[in-house]
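dumping this here before i forget
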Amino acid sequence: EYKAVFLNYIAIKKKIKEAQNSLENQSQDLEYKLHLWEELNNASLRIGELETLESEIKSLSNVEEIISTLNETYQFLEHPEVGIVSQLNEASNKLNRITDFSNEYKSIYDRLNSSKIELQDISGEMSHLIESTEMNPERLLELTERFDLIHKLLRKHDVLTIEDLIEKREQLETQTSGFDNLSDLIIHLNKELNLISDKLEKLSLKIRKNRFASIDTIRENILSTLSQLGMENSQLMIQLNETSDFTLTGKDEVLFLFSANKGMEPRVFEKSVSGGERSRLMLAIKKLLATHQHLPTLILDEIDTGISGKVANETGKVMQEMSQNMQLLVITHLPQVASKGNHQLKVYKEVVDETTKTNVKELSQTERLSEIAQMISGSELTDAALNQAKELMNLN
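structure:
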């Protein structure tokens, strides 16, 4: 249960770290992006505005010429004596006298009258334009500044239209709001992490309690096996120190302090044992673990390194005891250990077609006797070695 919660704890911490990194990266240019967004937002851009500004600026920039031209044109149309409209009125009145004589004359009259009406309409609009058009330098300055502002923004963001600027503003808004989203996410994840931490704290305390309860049993079991292996003066202390943070196995640092000899203060066993003592200590621990973990198979790879003689024989007996409850595979160079097995496989190398191959062969009873005797005497097989091998294998 603790491990499942711990893995979730690690995953949440990783998410927080990633979010913080993203937040840090974003914060480096956030201020600039906010400035760009505020600049665009304060501009209150409107689609089609640039064309309207351009037209109005042209009009105000040429207002004197426009008023003068409008007045002159109006005089052409409405001058009392020579104006086009006055002359059309006179022409229309004269044509009207002969309209009854022919439809042709009537048609010409109607067309002339229609032109007169159109020109009168144009004249009226022109009169309105003359009245409404005036010089306004303040308005021209305002429009020019607005026009310059928009063009400055277009150059700054390297775009062509107001639509592009509006799209840029929306992108910046999304990017800057993402900063707030990350901040909210980190706050949420930290709250979740605190809840998980509380649960881990309770579970780790339960694990520590169980560890304290089992220390004496573990210590006595290991010392008993070590005594069987010829290390009856061994001292073993198991310390639990609380760690600053949770680990995969709880919130404890477990220290094994060991001494193989009387009068020597127990120390961390990595620094306090020889090769042979280390092998026997590891065997004692493996035996204890195998008893409680109900393993189907255990492989011991030269765990008997550095021991010999009577201790080697006792080591073989301990392995025999372990094999009562599981399948035990042992790689060894000791005849005392090899002789205790129910079966024996020999691993050897040979050169075939200039290539070295490794072979494994199961030995018969007779082959086992020869192999164990050879392990005792070396390359030369002696009668004494054969007799000692028989004794080890209980064949006498």
